[in-house]
Amino acid sequence: MNNIKVNFSIKDLENLSGIKAHTIRIWEKRYNLLEPNRTDTNIRNYSIESLQKLLNITYLNNNGLKISKIANLKEEEIPIKVREIASRAQVENHAINALKIAMINFDQVLFYNTYNNLLETKTFKEVFYSVFLPLLNEIGLLWQTNTITPAHEHFLSIHIKQKILLNIERLQLLEPKPASNTFVLFLPDNEIHDIGLLFINYELRSKGYHTIFLGESVPMESLKDLNEFFNDITFISYFTVSPEESDIPEYLEKFSSLLLKEQNNKLFILGKKTSNLEPELLPEKITLYTSIKNLVKEL
Q1: How many whole angstroms from its chain centre is CA 192?
Q2: Which has more pLDDT, 1 or 104?
Q3: 81, 25 in Cβ contact below 8 A?
């Protein structure tokens, strides 16, 4: 446990909880809800226990409890109250907070317990859309603001990927639809963020489609080989960090001339790097989707 982050700045707490630093200070001063440690230069820092408490307080406050009422709860009553509300209400926010704590502590047991509890009332697909996807969006921002390290992000990502792969494996026994159309899922050069693409593969497999998952950092030229084996290929790619936005138009033009001129091939794209593209300006047979849900809905 030596490398676990145990001290947090007030800015870290703001990023992790969504509560403004100014509000956190008011809660401290007026209600004594948190007790920060202070450096020799009087700068606040907080323990992992303080972070856990703040996340629980935020959950209770978001579910209608006034801060004054929360402040009157005994220390040990706060997590009990959280569990009570979570048991009779939507559990997404509670689960997201628990998974944040699991990530901060590199706590695999907490991750799996939280996930298994979610499966008691939700399907895997529901867990991904309502918990994993919002959490991953938050994690990206936390990493950018240095609240967490790349190690934290990798810890969370690898465990979510394991769950997707496990559910894909369970679909292997399903008889696919007649392979008139083949979906080829790949990430472009230097792109390694494959969770979204993996989940699309799961969605396609669950609908009985024939898919070929090629994964991360696939050179465009190597995709030409697939035309020797399959007709009517629908390529699907996810741009999270690569290509750079300024390079995407050139990439798509090259992709179109190299892979979409013959047969009935198409390309579907989505991801953060595509957010500023104009759909009507894309080359023919290339379609932009704003979310996984929108893509899956049209299949």
Answers
A1: 14
A2: 104
A3: no
